Amino acid sequence: MSDNRHFDQLVSAGHPVGEVIAVDRFIIKVKGLQPVNMHSLILFEAGSKGYVHHIYEEHVVILHLGTKSITIGMTAVIQHDQLVTKVGKDFIGRVVSVTGEPLDGKGPIAADAVWPVFSPAPPFHDREALDTQLETGITVVDTLFPLMRGQRMALLGDGKSGKKHHGDANCAQSGQYRRYFGVRINCKTAE
To answer: 23-41 pLDDT, tens per residue?
Structure first.
C-alpha cells in the first residue's frame, strides 16, 4: 500500500497496474499496464500524473505531467481511459496544470465537472459567426490586426516581446467587462 489513498482505491478497484522500467526526465516507460488506450490518464504511486503517448507490445510510453520524481520500480495505475481535466467557474483567474491541479498556491479548486482534453471541435456550420470587433483601445492594433469577440488568437514570440502586455491590453479596457483566457505553455516560473 502507498501513502496515496486515491492511488490505493484505483488499484483495489481493479484498474490496470504497471511498473516503471525506465525514466528519462519526463518520458516514462511502464510495463504491465495493459489494456490501455492512447491518452489514458495515469496516476503514479507518488501522486504524480502522466498520460499514455505510445503503446508498444511490451510497454507503454507515458509523458510525465507532474513535478514529483518518478523512479524505476514505482507502480502506476490507469486513472481514466482518456486525458481529462477539471472544469468550472472557480478556475477563472487561477493558474492550473493540464489536469486542473492548482499551480498558483491559492489552495484547491472546486470543480463543476471533468471534461476530456482531446474532444472534437464542432463543425464550422454549427459555430456562431463572429461579427463584433474587439476594440483594444490601441488604434494601431485595431487597424492592422482587427480581432473579433470570441476569436482565438496565438501570441508567439521570444521572451520580453510584449505577448503578455498585448493580452492584458485586450482585457483591461475601462468600462467594459469581458473575460480573457490566457494559456501559457512551457513558461519559466519567472514569467
So the answer is: 998 999 999 998 999 999 9
Q: Which domains does the chain have, with CATH numbers?
A: 5-82 (2.40.30.20), 122-191 (no CATH)
Check pLDDT > 50 for residue 191. Answer: no
Say which residue the cell 513558461 belongs to.
187
Length of the chain in terms of residues written: 191
Instruction: Provide the whole-model pTM.
Output: 0.69
Residue range 162-174, pLDDT digits in tens: 776 766 666 655 4
Torsion sign, CA atoms 86, 124, 164, 159: positive
Q: Angle at CA 39, nearest 5°, toward 18 and 112?
A: 105
Residue 94 is placed in which grid cell? 487561477
